[in-house]
Amino acid sequence: xxxxxxxxxxxxxxxxxxxxxxxxxxxxxxxxxxxxxxxxxxxxxxxxxxxxxxxxxxxxxxxxxxxxxxxxxxxxxxxxxxxxxxxxxxxxxxxxxxxxxxxxxxxxxxxxxxxxxxxxxxxxxxxxxxxxxxxxxxxxxxxxxxxxxxxxxxxxxxxxxxxxxxxxxxxxxxxxxxxxxxxxxxxxxxxxxxxxxxxxxxxxxxxxxxxxxxxxxxxxxxxxxxxxxxxxxxxxxxxxxxxxxxxxxxxxxxxxxxxxxxxxxxxxxxxxxxxxxxxxxxxxxxxxxxxxxxxxxxxxxxxxxxxxxxxxxxxxxxxxxxxxxxxxxxxxxxxxxxxxxxxxxxxxxxxxxxxxxxxxxxxxxxxxxxxxxxxxxxxxxxxxxxxxxxxxxxxxxxxxxxxxxxxxxxxxxxxxxxxxxxxxxxxxxxxxxxxxxxxxxxxxxxxxxxxxxxxxxxxxxxxxxxxxxxxxxxxxxxxxxxxxxxxxxxxxxxxxxxxxxxxxxxxxxxxxxxxxxxxxxxxxxxxxxxxxxxxxxxxxxxxxxxxxxxxxxxxxxxxxxxxxxxxxxxxxxxxxxxxxxxxxxxxxxxxxxxxx
Length: 596
Ligand SMILES: Cc1cc2nc3c(=O)[nH]c(=O)nc-3n(C[C@H](O)[C@H](O)[C@H](O)COP(=O)(O)O)c2cc1C
Ligand SMILES: Nc1ncnc2c1ncn2[C@@H]1O[C@H](COP(=O)(O)OP(=O)(O)OP(=O)(O)O)[C@@H](O)[C@H]1O
Ligand SMILES: [Mg+2]
Known about the structure:
Layout: E1 15-16, E2 22-26, E3 47-52, H1 63-70, E4 75-78, E5 87-90, H2 92-98, H3 102-105, H4 120-132, E6 136-143, E7 149-161, E8 166-172, H5 177-222, H6 226-253, E9 262-264, H7 266-280, E10 285-291, E11 298-300, H8 302-319, E12 324-335, E13 347-349, E14 358-367, H9 374-379, H10 397-407, E15 411-416, E16 422-429, E17 458-462, H11 466-478, E18 482-486, H12 489-499, E19 507-511, H13 520-530, E20 535-540, H14 544-548, E21 558-560, H15 565-577
Helix pairs in contact: 5-6, 6-10, 7-8, 8-10, 12-13
Bound molecules: flavin mononucleotide (FMN), adenosine-5'-triphosphate (ATP) and magnesium ion.
Flavin mononucleotide binds at residues 76, 78, 85, 109-111, 113-114, 123, 126-127, 130, 140, 142, 152, 154, 156, 169, 171, 173.
């Protein structure tokens, strides 16, 4: 370690002791590197580095020395001019903190306090500070002599002599284990509370829906009048639809939605939605559009964006029971490397997401409603958090919107003050529009047509849930298809090998996520490898697999659950029509990565 170059000139030290014997550079509100000060705030007076006239360590007669030995704050000095910067002085509190005797530590570098669980990044920060002769304050895990770990809030700063030579490093330590543990259990408790709230919310909403479905089915079972039975069935179906919408919102919140992103102009998209938006608010609410032309494209899923925007506009409507103005705006935004301020000074939520500097497009919804308190802003994007009465809000609107925006690589921001309206912003990254082929328009084939039994196509249905399998089979058979079934990938492949040679399988209809070694993607690849002319349709409740494994199956290959009868029949006949045309072109990777 070289100690002769001086990074900051000690003669510039502003705080000179009245005796003229020592001087220091004051903190003046700056935080030390590491920003974890033992005094929990940026101080004004304390010195971050100092200059001394008397470097003698053996002058121990004064009251200051007594103070150092009496304080409960551990302190040490190290000598950077000796090999490996060893400890040359340790006060009594340091011995008490660490459990060592003085002679065991003098002459040793402080790293003996570190151990297996010590964060190497924190150690590197200390090393850099020592190398740069700069002050640093941070917390890291250290170990006492008897091996027990403790969280150490350590401050290190340089001490120069009047010639500008670095003579010592001073350090103070503090055991902050109790505070860290409290913080951790608090966070854990908060997490448990959120999970409890989520579960309770889900249970509540699904119980209601199940009640409606079951109740109506029971009524159907005993109904004598067909018209009545129809009504019961319709009521049950509509409750099931609401359940499906609930899970869609939840999946969006969990960022597990199968997105179909396309490069889009947000301005154009919002213009297209404007009728729908108008119709979702009441007459007293006026919608004003302020849309910038010529925006860079953003890559988003238009259906999800529509849902997110509607959720946000509906919130604006709800916040203005007596009417008012809602302004929907689009504009470009450049994020600088370091973000400063939130622009308007209102309380803001950035949804905990750090975005890379660069070009973004903002879609903003501003209302003149009752606004939100900081506590509400803080929790607004939590699923099932609602301030609306029972039955009027599920608390999934902003959860969905924020999950969707995040999954699209952006961030949701909320700015609001009670009584002063609310601005909700969705930021989407622009520019890198790696263009995905727009899905080819599908020839539409009427779904309800019954298949001619003579030419009945053979479908292999693979699904691990018995009930779902039974329904798929029922729907397909009732439409005249010839159906074989398997409960998992391995079974399906065995069955395929056995029946295909004599009873040709025209379509593989498989669940994507299945237990066992073989998921839908792997199965599809194996089947297509055996006979490339077999069509494939996959189905899934969400497709984490595809998202994780990169290349996405084409939209036309995957049917989302829950699906309706007409949808299934539509997609099956489309898949069958694609036969041959695709088989020869399909490569292994067409379904995404094939490992599980
Ligand atoms: C004055 C001073 C006090 C230090 N106090 C501690 C300490 O309490 N705990 C610790 O883990 N490291 C402490 N260190 C850091 C280590 O001594 C050492 O600088 C760090 O481990 C990085 O260097 P290395 O990568 O060579 O180990 C201190 C360093 C100095 C200069
Ligand atoms: N524009 C707004 N003005 C004032 N408060 C808002 C606004 N948007 C959201 N909030 C607050 O955030 C809460 C959560 O909003 P969110 O959209 O997630 O759920 P919700 O509107 O209560 O229910 P849901 O949208 O599922 O019907 C709301 O209950 C409300 O307190
Ligand atoms: Mg809402």
